[in-house]
Structures are given as structure tokens and as C-alpha cells.
Amino acid sequence: MSQLPTLEEIRRAPKVLLHDHLDGGLRPETIVDLARETGYDKLPTTDPGALRTWFQEASDSGSLERYLETFDHTVGVMQTRESLVRVAAECAEDLAADGVVYAEVRYAPEQHTSAGLSLEEVIEAVLEGFRIGSEGRGIRVGTLLTAMRHQARSMEIAELAVRYRDVGVAGFDIAGAEAGYPPTRHLDAFEYLQRENAHFTIHAGEAFGLPSIWQAIQWCGADRLGHGVRIIDDITVPADGEAKLGRLAAYVRDKRIPLEMCPTSNLQTGAAPSIAEHPIGLLRRLNFRVTVNTDNRLMSGTTVSEEFAKLSEAFGYSWDDMQWFTINAMKSAFLPFDERLALINGVIKPGFAQLKWHG
């Protein structure tokens, strides 16, 4: 048996990231700086190392609601144009340093207006930051505009996603606590996006089960599922037989609906018991359109490379498996087909071929 790829080797592989929250990936040093500059005085500590530890420990509670509370501090320091430009630029730099060649990073514009910025000013600041951070680093970053499930601004955000789609906004998303806030509350926004031939993903099947996945796909028409781990509830694996797929799981697999899996985050929110028992193992074996993502790099203390390293250790994944996950992600990106193909054939396959050859 060949040796599994090391973390350092994995960092050199060309990777694709589809599910990453801008307000979940700040550098602790930046949070401290921005808090000082903007007068934000609610941080639990102003020591960057201690702050990093606080975020990760607060995120390990097993509760999605408690996990989401940590964002009060990151969002709290992201209320000015300057802070948004800096955070977006550093996000692109950090992803490029981890070997990411294409990323779709999401955020909710409505959460960054408390100091007087308009939604348009928020969007333009983030786009500027990504332009600055991506330059010369071999990474391309698109943004997903997120609407909050418990608010009533989804149509407004959807219209902005369409307005800015030719200058860096790749698509639309809804996020926030799933229980009590079904995606069907935002049906008008999803129908508008479909009429406009726009792309969107929906957080579903993480804290809530199969009904949220069914609604996201069959009522709302989602192109991708954010997380989607609970699709496992529609798969039965007898001790002595092959996996049996229920109607919904079979539909998701048949239609190649991408699943934006975030293993470490899923452990923190209680959506999976451990990496070794994460549904991604079975779903990969059954050839679902699975992708590997970070969700929130600060809260989970992770990178895409580290997610792959954990999966490789748990499931024995080789370079071929990692290439499979990466091509899945690139196929599922909200980019024109020819641009996806160019990255697959011109960057991803040659990059993995070189690593496998040297390995």
C-alpha cells in the first residue's frame, strides 16, 4: 500500500473551495486590530493567540446556535469599508497560501450595515478586497451573497446577486438557524433567481433533516446543498448487503446535486459524531457529488488542506480520491462551463499528476 499524502504535500495540491464564510475566516490578529480601530469593545480577549483558542473552544459546543454566536465578534469588526476590504484581501491571501485555485466565499451583506454602509457599498468593498488579495497569487475568488433565513430581505439580496453577477458575484445563498425557518419562506427570491438564470445554493440538511433537503431541492430548486449531511438518513446499509437509497437520496445522486460537505464544522455542530463516522465516507463510496470544504476556518481551526488530511487519515484517501473531490467541486462551481473546464484541464489535473508522479 502506498503512503498517504502528508499535510505539506496536500497544501501543494490545487484545491477548490465552495463553502467558506467570509466572517468565519478572519485572522485573530486582524480582529484585534479592527476592534481597536473601530471602537469595538466586546472581544473576550485582545490577545490574538488567546482569541484564536476562545473561538475554537466556543465553536466546539455541539450546538449550531451556540456556534453561530461566535460570529457576533467577527461581524462586529466588519462594519466599515476599510475593514471589509482588508478581511476579503486577507481571505484571498490565506486561501492562495493553502493551495486553493478557485473559491466561492459567502457572506450576508445585510449584516455589515450597522455603521451606515449601504448594501451596495458592502458588496463593492468585498469585491475590491478580493481583487487586491487575489492579484498575482494564482487564485480566483467569486462571492456568494447570503440572505439570513430569519430576516425578510432575501429578494433584495437576490436582486443584488443578479446585478453584480458580471463583476465577481457568483451566486446566492441563504444561511442561519434551520429549525423554524424553512427555505420555502424565501420562495419568491428563489423563483426570481431561476427566472434570471442565476445560480444559488441553500444551507440544508445540517441541523435539520431530510425535510429541509427536500424543500431546498424540490420547492426552491437549489443548484447545490450547503452541507446536506443528513441525506444519510435516507440511506440504509444492512450488515450483510449493499446500501439501499431512499427516493430523495437516489434523486440527489441521480441528478448529481453537489453536497458542500464541511467535516470539522459538522462535528462542532453535532451533525456528525467524528471524522471517521462522517457521512462523507459512505457518500463518496456511493459516488454522490461530494465536495470538501471548510465552512468557517477560524471557528473550526482548519484549512481545506487540513480537511483533506483528516479525511485521508480516516478513510485512507489517496491522491486519486482528492482529485475526484476537487474535480467534483470545480464541476459544481458557479462559473461558466468553459472556464470550469479550463481550470480542470489546465490547472487541477496537471497539478495532481505532478504530485502523484513525485509521490
Automatic annotation (TrEMBL):
Residues 14-349 form the Adenosine deaminase domain. Binds 1 zinc ion per subunit. Gene3D superfamilies: Metal-dependent hydrolases (3.20.20.140). It catalyses: 2'-deoxyadenosine + H2O + H(+) = 2'-deoxyinosine + NH4(+); adenosine + H2O + H(+) = inosine + NH4(+). GO terms for biological process: adenosine catabolic process; hypoxanthine salvage; inosine biosynthetic process; nucleotide metabolic process; purine ribonucleoside monophosphate biosynthetic process. Keywords: Hydrolase, Metal-binding, Nucleotide metabolism, Zinc. One of its GO terms (cellular component) is cytosol. Pfam families: A_deaminase (PF00962). Belongs to the metallo-dependent hydrolases superfamily. Adenosine and AMP deaminases family. Adenosine deaminase subfamily. This is Adenosine deaminase. It comes from Planobispora longispora.
